[in-house]
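tool_call: predict_structure(chain=1)
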Amino acid sequence: MPQMMAVLSATHVVLVVVVVLLLFGAQKIPELARSLGSGLKEFKKGMREGEQALLQEPESPTVPPQETTTNPR
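tool_result:
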């Protein structure tokens, strides 16, 4: 039974499109698609910048300076 739920037929796709049109209206769909596209574009840009930041790590690890303690005698 769970395997049957994963399959989308053409009827399901048409039903989803009709519901989306009824909820948002035909005039709002291009605006929603545009905002979705720009959101995906920004997400991909952020992913690229994150990968570049990871690749540009310093070549040698920085060692923190050791504390010097003076022992007064």
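agent: The mean pLDDT is 82. Proceeding to next step.
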